[in-house]
UniProtKB/TrEMBL annotation:
<feature type="domain" description="G-patch">
    <location>
        <begin position="1"/>
        <end position="36"/>
    </location>
</feature>
<dbReference type="Pfam" id="PF07842">
    <property type="entry name" value="GCFC"/>
</dbReference>
<dbReference type="GO" id="GO:0003676">
    <property type="term" value="F:nucleic acid binding"/>
</dbReference>
<dbReference type="GO" id="GO:0071008">
    <property type="term" value="C:U2-type post-mRNA release spliceosomal complex"/>
</dbReference>
<comment type="similarity">
    <text>Belongs to the TFP11/STIP family.</text>
</comment>
<dbReference type="Pfam" id="PF01585">
    <property type="entry name" value="G-patch"/>
</dbReference>
<dbReference type="InterPro" id="IPR022783">
    <property type="entry name" value="GCFC_dom"/>
</dbReference>
<dbReference type="InterPro" id="IPR000467">
    <property type="entry name" value="G_patch_dom"/>
</dbReference>
<protein>
    <recommendedName>
        <fullName>G-patch domain-containing protein</fullName>
    </recommendedName>
</protein>
<dbReference type="GO" id="GO:0000390">
    <property type="term" value="P:spliceosomal complex disassembly"/>
</dbReference>
<dbReference type="InterPro" id="IPR045211">
    <property type="entry name" value="TFP11/STIP/Ntr1"/>
</dbReference>
């Protein structure tokens, strides 16, 4: 099997080469008591080598066994290998800055906390944080591992490490205490500085308060003059403004000065001497009034100067308003205009609303337009800049009502109505003015136009002039409708009759141009009026063509020509024909207008109001429009137009 003497068995000679030999022990001691057991030996090995080996092993074992008795020499040899590391307090503090965890003092409280240490190659479960502190850290840059020796006393080493750690912790605690003390010192220094500033401020406040008390004592002295009071208040406001604002000394000043000013204003007659005591009020305005502007009376009433004016100036104005004659508006307006820059706006408005306007409203109620000689606009219009809105709301409706009653028996030949209404053209709101004229003036102008007799041979223009004079006040659409309904039908009828009786075209031309020049330019440019004038020209052209062709002019008039009457009879017949023609409706719109006039219903076109390109009319309470002789009415509260018969529309308009 390849066996060679003196060598082991196997392919690589790794087996034993000798059988197991028994070793005889000297005594009955335990294994190792008499030295190491002799292992197997290769057969044929020299006996001397075996004996030397046994002696060395026995000696080494005896050295280890007696180490606990005579270990001084070995300890000294081992101590020479220990490397000591020294740390300064600064190094300990620097290393302790990043440490987060309990201190040594807290180990007793955390002794039962389970700690898992995963800093090593294997996970370890420790009984508490103190176990971490008891571990020995490896020495840096130490390549030789320290071998554990029997009897190294690990408990003693743990206690020493714990003492070192506690010393480091004490150093860290002392450092924290020092830093905390420094921070507290800084805070206390800042607090001392702050309290010093407070003491200085309080000292200055005490000095300011003493000065304020001295000035207050001067204000409380009797008698108190206005000059002395003004100087004291001015000094308080300029030098002690904070105390002035905090203690509201302006209000106190107004309460002190108001009785003095009120006593001086007792004998003042504002209507006779409007500017009395104004310089004194201007001085107090500079002293007391705040720089902020006030828009609401509730906020403005807190201003000392406003309180002063309200308590001293207003009573004198109230007394003067009770004695004032409303029809002599100049005196009261002079007072208000004089004091406009001094008296606050809300006080001025209060005087107008509570003292002036009630008197004016009562005077307007007592005004009679038929008997009073002084026109109302002379003493009422000057108040428009002061109370325009209240005049529109409360006074103007009363004036229109009284004028409407006065115009009941008025005739267009009386020019007093035009003179009375002309000043109100730009004063009344445009809608109110137009409605008033259409309701009270237009029906009478229509009646005057119906009474106009168009006689080419002897024309009287009185009625025409009465109507045209109202062109400056009357709405344009109303005047246009007036001529369309009450003038042009008669005019065209007379022209037709004239053309049918061998006319002189030169006279007709002059007659046509004369009437055209009488119509105002603004009305003449209206499409309806242009259409009527064009219609007249067409009649004249047709008549001229017929005469040039020697044709009969019978087509111009329906009835045959009457026998030639006398001049007087011709004039009467012509006037009667014109009057009759003016009373006959020429279409459905004229019929509707005539029915509305009979029932007293207002019928007029609404300016700039159209529906489907058809003019919309105001018919009493409803709105209507005409389309091919069909009447459409607008339902209330909805822009829905529905056809209706004439009777139903008239009933709805009432």
């Amino acid at each position: 099997m390849g066996y060679q003497p003196g060598k082991g068995l196997g392919k690589n000679l790794q087996g034993i080469s000798a059988p197991v030999e028994a070793a005889v022990r000297k005594g009955r001691g335990a294994i190792g008591a008499y030295g190491p057991e002799v292992g197997q030996r290769v057969a044929g090995q020299k006996r001397e080598e075996k004996l030397d080996l046994d002696e060395e092993e026995a000696k080494e074992f005896k050295d280890k066994l007696s180490q606990w008795r005579k270990g001084d020499s070995s300890i000294k040899k081992k101590a020479s290998k220990v490397k000591y590391v020294y740390k300064t307090a600064d190094q300990v503090i620097e290393e302790g800055k990043g440490k987060i965890g309990p201190s040594i003092k807290d180990y007793s409280n955390l002794s039962k906390v389970k700690v898992i240490d995963m800093t090593g190659p294997e996970q370890r479960v420790l009984s508490g944080y103190h176990a971490i502190a008891g571990q020995r850290k490896p020495i840096e840059n130490e390549g030789i591992k320290e071998e554990l020796v029997h009897f190294d006393l690990p408990e003693l080493m743990h206690n020493l490490d714990l003492i070192v750690t506690m010393c480091e912790q004490d150093i860290l605690d002392k450092d924290r205490q020092v830093r905390s003390s420094k921070d507290r010192q800084i805070v206390m220094e800042q607090e001392v500085e702050k309290l010093g500033n407070v003491i200085d401020s309080q000292g200055k406040q005490i000095e300011s308060t003493d000065a304020v008390l001295q000035l207050m004592e001067q204000l409380c002295e009797k008698p108190l003059s206005l000059d002395k009071a003004a100087n004291c208040i001015k000094e308080l406001k300029e030098k002690h403004n904070s105390d002035y604002e905090i203690y509201e000394m302006g209000t106190m000043a107004s309460n002190l000065v108001s009785p003095i000013l009120r006593e001086k204003l007792k004998l003042w007659k504002p209507l006779e001497n409007p500017s009395f005591m104004m310089p004194e009020f201007r001085r107090w305005q500079r002293v007391l009034e705040n720089e902020k502007s006030h828009t609401l009376s509730s906020a403005a009433a807190k201003d000392p100067f406003h309180t002063l004016v309200w308590g001293s100036w207003t009573p004198s104005i109230r007394t003067a308003a009770c004695e004032w004659n409303c029809r002599q508006s100049g005196s009261m307006i002079a007072v208000l205009e004089t004091w406009r820059g001094v008296v606050p706006g809300w006080i001025m408005n209060s005087v107008v609303d509570n003292l002036v306007m009630p008197r004016l409203e009562q005077e307007v109620e007592n005004w009679n337009p038929l008997t009073d000689v002084v026109p109302v606009h002379q003493w009422l219009h000057p108040w428009i800049p002061f109370a325009e809105k209240r005049l529109i709301d409360n006074v103007y409706p009363v004036i229109r009502r009284k004028l409407s009653s006065a115009l009941t028996a008025w005739h267009p030949s009386d020019k007093s109505a035009l003179l009375m209404l002309r000043p109100w053209k730009k004063v009344f709101p445009q809608g109110d003015m137009d409605a008033f004229l259409v309701t009270n003036i237009l029906p009478k102008l229509q009646k005057a136009m119906q009474e106009l007799v168009i006689n080419p041979h002897h024309q009287q223009l009185d009625q025409w002039n009465w109507v045209i004079e109202w062109n400056e006040l009357m709405p344009l659409y109303a005047m246009t409708t007036l001529l369309e309904k009450f003038f042009f039908p008669q005019w065209l009828h007379v022209l037709t009759m004239w053309l049918s009786h061998s006319p002189n075209f030169d006279e007709i031309k002059n007659w046509y141009l004369g009437w055209k020049n009488l119509i105002p330019t603004l009305i003449k440019n209206q499409p309806v009026v242009k259409g009527k004038l064009t219609e007249a020209l067409q009649l004249m052209n047709r008549a001229a063509d017929a005469v040039s062709r020697n044709q009969s002019l019978a087509f111009l008039t329906a009835p045959p020509p009457p026998p030639p009457p006398t001049q007087r009879e011709a004039q009467e017949l012509m006037a009667e024909a014109v009057r009759t023609a003016g009373q006959i409706p020429h279409g459905f719109r004229e019929l509707l207008q005539k029915k509305c006039e009979e029932r007293g219903i207002l019928f007029m076109p609404i300016p700039n109001r159209y529906h489907e390109a058809k003019q919309v009319y105001r018919c009493g309470k409803i709105q209507v429009y005409l389309d091919r002789s069909v009447l459409f009415i607008c339902k209330s509260n909805a822009n829905i137009w529905v056809p209706s018969d004439l009777q139903s529309a008239l009933d709805a308009a009432m």
